[in-house]
């Protein structure tokens, strides 16, 4: 799904301690109603209390799992921004390899892939400061996001960004076996900011960032990243 022009600094809702991404508001409300509808009759008509208590405990675990999935911390990158590429997502680095990016860069690039499990924050941040020049959504399959061909075969959105230093990179949001909805807020012509949200992917997925081949990569396979905070690479002006 492509939503252009959403105000990025207004996408958080919640209390003072835990912020919930607006993408999860309706889901959490509906889930609460469904679980309540299931639990009330159990407590009224199924004594003794062992079964109702077990049902309520399971419901609480399910609700907290979904609640945890949609949490959305407010983050501000405090490191050097010039020439820096920062992780777009929370997750684990599963690939750092040289490939060819044929959609927008149309050249060789270094791809850094970060896999998000259902336990990770699933908000996506812009990886650099710059200008959004290209956005496209592609329908596709829902293979495991761990598979290499997920980058080209799965449901995905591609965002092309020109950094402030003139270099170009691509951010690709990729759906996984569980993820069935990709939301992309980026619009062509707007400013990209590391502290702002690029989009959101629901329930397990991956993000690939395609960098110039001369970029200095700062992470390795197996490293854990935090969106909007973990430096991935340094890209000097061309």
CATH second-level architecture of the largest domain: Distorted Sandwich
Low-pLDDT runs: 6-17
Structural class: alpha+beta
Largest sheet: 8 strands, antiparallel
Strand order of the largest sheet: 11-7-8-9-13-5-4-15
Radius of gyration from the alpha-carbon trace, in angstroms? 20 Å
The percentage helix is 10-25%
- CATH class of the largest domain, anyone? Mainly Beta
Count of DSSP H/I helices? 3
Mean pLDDT: 85
- Counting DSSP E segments of at least 2 residues, the number of strands comes to 16
Cα distance, first to last residue? Answer: 34 Å
Shape field: elongated
Q: How many domain modules?
A: 2
**H/E topology pattern:** EEHHEEEEEHEEEEEEEEE
CATH superfamily of the largest domain: Glucose Permease (Domain IIA)
How much strand? Answer: 25-35%
CATH topology of the largest domain: Glucose Permease (Domain IIA)
Describe this structure in words.
The chain has 238 residues and is an alpha+beta fold. The chain has 2 domains: 19-69; 84-234, Glucose Permease (Domain IIA). The chain contains 3 helices and 16 strands. It has helices spanning 25-45, 50-69, 150-153; strands at 12-14, 19-21, 84-86, 91-101, 107-116, 123-125, 130-138, 156-163, 168-175, 182-184, 191-192, 197-201, 205-211, 216-217, 224-225, 231-234. Strands 11-7-8-9-13-5-4-15 form an 8-stranded antiparallel β-sheet. The chain has a 3-stranded antiparallel β-sheet with strand order 3-16-14, with no helix packed on it. Helix 1 (25-45) runs antiparallel to helix 2 (50-69). The longest helix has 21 residues, at 25-45. The relative contact order is 0.20. Mean pLDDT is 85; it is low at 6-17.
């Amino acid at each position: 799904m492509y939503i252009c022009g959403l105000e990025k600094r207004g996408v958080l809702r919640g209390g003072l301690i835990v912020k919930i991404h607006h993408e999860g508001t309706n889901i959490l409300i509906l889930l609460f109603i469904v679980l309540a509808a299931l639990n009330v009759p159990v407590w009224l008509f199924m004594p003794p209390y062992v079964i109702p208590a077990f049902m309520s405990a399971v419901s609480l675990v399910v609700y907290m799992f979904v609640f945890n999935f949609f949490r959305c911390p407010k983050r501000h990158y405090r490191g050097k921004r010039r020439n820096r590429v920062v992780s777009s997502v929370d997750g684990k680095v599963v690939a750092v390899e040289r490939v060819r990016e044929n959609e927008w860069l149309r050249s060789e690039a270094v791809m850094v892939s970060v896999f998000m499990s259902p336990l990770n924050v699933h908000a996506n941040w812009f990886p650099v400061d710059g200008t959004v020049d290209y956005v496209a959504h592609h329908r596709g399959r829902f293979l495991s996001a761990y598979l290499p061909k997920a980058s080209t075969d799965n449901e995905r959105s591609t965002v092309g960004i020109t950094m402030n230093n003139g270099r170009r990179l691509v951010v690709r949001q990729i759906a996984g076996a569980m993820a069935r909805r990709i939301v992309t807020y980026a619009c062509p012509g707007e400013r990209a900011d590391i502290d702002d949200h690029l989009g959101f992917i629901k329930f397990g997925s991956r993000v690939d960032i395609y960098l110039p081949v001369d970029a200095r990569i700062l992470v390795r396979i197996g490293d854990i990243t935090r969106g909007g905070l973990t430096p991935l690479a340094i890209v000097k002006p061309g």
